[in-house]
Amino acid sequence: MVVYNFSAGPAVLPKEVLKKAQAEFLDYAGTGMSVMELSHRSKPFEDIIQSAEQLLRELMGIPDNYKVLFLQGGASTQFSMIPLNLALGKKAYYHVAGSWGKKAYTEAVLLSKTLPFEPILLASSEDSNFDHIPSFDASSIDPQAAYVHITTNNTIEGTAIYDLPDTKGVPIVADMSSNILAAQYRVADFGMIYAGAQKNIGPAGVTIVIIREDLINTTPALSSMLDYKIQADNESLYNTPPTFGIYMAKLVFEHVKSLGGVVKMAELNRHKSGLLYDYIDRSAFYQNPVKNPADRSVANIPFTTPSPELDKLFCQEAESQGFVNIKGHRSVGGMRASLYNAFPLEGVEALLNFMKEFEDKHGH
């Protein structure tokens, strides 16, 4: 039985990448050692991390005045690092269009109880279960604020921001965890981008931070490990980084480049998600909760049947046929198809056939 992994993360990786890693697993580049055994101070690993950075710069068009960091702690650790390094003595705005944006704002509020900065909720769609991207009045933003925080793709709710909001020149800090390398953005339009690797880049354990140099803190942060300047000055080697995860990221970057880069990935993702959205829109049996089609994510597509009972049955029957991890997040229920870069087109086509069979069987 063919298995199609719809997990929202850790997510499917390209088979070509897994095969290459397998072939090099016991002996990387003639060293006689696995990558997992290499010292992070060694020349072979130095080549890996420098190559990974250069490939990412090329894929995303990262300007020279931005630092690229390979950190640990997942994107959630950035919820603390960002205000600690960027916001002290200032205001920081939070645009909350999903559960992860809410977590970032909640963490900022918690930190503000002991640290001198003011987190401000700029807009939120929580009152309607995050079924749309909320708008806001740009004139309400203090031009002296540290940043406006956004989430470019809401993994749980299935919404995304493709056209960046007007922030009156205040730097945009973006959690891009679930659509980095999957949709096109101009890095120069952001003050900072961060992303957990486990959706489009590699295994869990690596966090990518792309930060404009003038935003890097000049005074020490609360903790050395949480200090962007220390991490940048040490080129992500202040302590032992997730070496194997960075190596896997490099292989994924090489793979994406070989396929045509982010432009090609975005095109493929629009096609894959479009097939599924078109079927849902034509069906009277399935529903997508996102109100505005322009807000729809190409990475995460939530959908439901007419009842929770049928949703449960759908997930059970789907798993028995090899469609795994398609159950929706526990906070919203239903189903969710995560169609990241490595998810194959034939998996979408197979899912559509199953959905039609299920609808024919239970649609009456």
From TrEMBL:
E.C. no: 2.6.1.52
Residues the record lists as binding pyridoxal 5'-phosphate: 75-76, 100, 155, 175, 198, 239-240
Entry-linked InterPro entries: Aminotrans_V_dom (IPR000192), Aminotrans_V_PyrdxlP_BS (IPR020578), Pser_aminoTfrase (IPR022278), PyrdxlP-dep_Trfase (IPR015424), PyrdxlP-dep_Trfase_major (IPR015421), PyrdxlP-dep_Trfase_small (IPR015422)
PROSITE patterns: AA_TRANSFER_CLASS_5
Keywords: Amino-acid biosynthesis, Aminotransferase, Cytoplasm, Pyridoxal phosphate, Serine biosynthesis, Transferase
Gene3D superfamilies: Aspartate Aminotransferase, domain 1 (3.90.1150.10), Type I PLP-dependent aspartate aminotransferase-like (Major domain) (3.40.640.10)
Pathway given in the UniProt record: Amino-acid biosynthesis; L-serine biosynthesis; L-serine from 3-phospho-D-glycerate: step 2/3
Co-factor remark: Binds 1 pyridoxal phosphate per subunit.
PANTHER family: PHOSPHOSERINE AMINOTRANSFERASE
Role description: Catalyzes the reversible conversion of 3-phosphohydroxypyruvate to phosphoserine and of 3-hydroxy-2-oxo-4-phosphonooxybutanoate to phosphohydroxythreonine.
This protein's name: Phosphoserine aminotransferase
The species this protein was found in: Streptococcus rupicaprae
Segments passing through the bilayer: none
